[in-house]
């Protein structure tokens, strides 16, 4: 009998689903918004050796319902929805989709830098509302991106792609902060390592690209916004949880920082009572980081490949917890 794999939350393109069906019996629950309490899904998960999808809280409770599970393939690079320790304890391999979304996500980050600096959304709305009746006055001017200082917090794959855009496309000085220095990027791009506080004080734009973890939870709060100051623009394309959102709202209301470009929020979709999308100095996007046809396809394709290889006992292209499983 062929192995069962379950698909959750993210529908797969027909060609990719067909590829899975060549190898497995596919139980597709991707049409459900949250399958975690659906009896059919839980029954299929109970039989499944593989699971593929994204944006589902995959913690101990679901892992306990999956006694045969061997590989989980996430269609995302961030793995903060998964209890990685619990998966590793059970010997379950977790795979993800790095690299294929790097450039597209960096484009989103840079779009937010440009839109907030030049007030693109606010002024386009102003024109649409028929308010453009005389020449623009300084009250509506923006700030320059070219030649400014960009601080990247999380100089990994996506951070480096943003740094290249800033350095080579916009002649920016680029500072970065990580837990460890990255001399490869220092040499290749010319980025300068900085302690976090110094980066916040010196940057005109702070762009966040760290993974969400216990260490990065609420990494940006009142103190950090005060260090940035009233000329700084804050851009978050990482995860909403890296920010203390009430502190960000207060900093934007009081002019502690100049503006914010946000692709991610603590609660998504944003609840109606969250004021951020309605603030004049905020550009809010609905988590579009990797959302182009080509990139979403490439992510799903890699995730399917990871699952097929993982369940065949091979090393997938992008295993996340390979070392934790003592595989080599
Ligand atoms: P990556 O290559 O692993 O880069 C992450 C960087 O963050 C690393 O350089 C790491 O360096 C640094 N870092 C980790 N913990 C840190 C901490 N506590 N303090 C300071 N720096 C820290 O990952 P990536 O592929 O660039 O992706 C980054 C994140 O972007 C993902 O985890 C995901 O959450 C987010 N993302 C969002 C979207 C979207 O749609 N908006 C799309 C894709 C990805 P050290 O280990 O040296 O600290």
TrEMBL record:
Residues 110-289 form the D-isomer specific 2-hydroxyacid dehydrogenase NAD-binding domain. The keyword NAD applies. GO terms for molecular function: glyoxylate reductase (NADPH) activity; hydroxypyruvate reductase [NAD(P)H] activity; NAD binding. Pfam families: 2-Hacid_dh, 2-Hacid_dh_C. Keywords: NAD, Oxidoreductase, Pyruvate. One of its GO terms (cellular component) is cytosol. It comes from the Bacteria. InterPro entries: D-isomer_2-hydroxyacid_DH (IPR050223), D-isomer_2_OHA_DH_cat_dom (IPR006139), D-isomer_DH_CS1 (IPR029752), D-isomer_DH_NAD-bd (IPR006140), NAD(P)-bd_dom_sf (IPR036291). Residues 7-319 form the D-isomer specific 2-hydroxyacid dehydrogenase catalytic domain. Belongs to the D-isomer specific 2-hydroxyacid dehydrogenase family. This is Bifunctional glyoxylate/hydroxypyruvate reductase B.
